[in-house]
Amino acid sequence: MDGWRAAAACQEVDPDLFFPVGTGSPALVQAEEAKKVCGRCSVREPCLRSALAQPHPPSGVWGGLTETERRSLERRARRRADDRR
User: Which of 5, 14, 19, 48 has the fewest CB atoms found within 10 Å of its own CB?
Assistant: First the structure.
C-alpha cells in the first residue's frame, strides 16, 4: 500500500462515496461530495498521481477528480507534450 493512503481524508468516510454509480443527478451529487472530502485532504496530489500512473485508470473519484476529469487532464497533457515537439 502506498504510504500516503494512511493519511488520506477518505479513510474516515464510507468508501462507496467515491464510486458513484451512473451519470444522473444522484451520481453527480455523490461525486461532488467525494470531491469535498478530497478538497480537505493533505495527500490529494499523491492520490491523483497514483491514479494517473495506473495502466488501467481506476474508476471513481481519486485526487479530487472523476474518471472523466482525469482522462481530460491526461488528454490536455498529451496535447501540450505534442505541441512542444
Answer: 14
Question: Annotated binding residues for [4Fe-4S] cluster, as ranges?
Answer: 10, 38, 41, 47
List the domain range (segments joined by +) for residue 33.
3-84
The backbone torsions φ and ψ at residue 46, rounded to the nearest 5 degrees and listed phi first, read -60, -35
Q: What is the per-residue pLDDT across 37-73, written as a single tens digit (0 to 9) for each? A: 999 999 999 999 999 999 887 899 999 999 999 999 9
Grid cell listed for 62: 481519486
Tell me, what DSSP letter sits at residue 77?
Answer: H
Annotated binding site: 10, 38, 41, 47
Single-letter amino acid code for the residue at 26: P
What does pTM read for this prediction?
0.86
27, burial (CB in 10 Å: exposed 0-12, middle 13-18, buried 19+): middle
First-residue to last-residue Cα distance in the chain = 36
Structural domains counted in the chain:
1
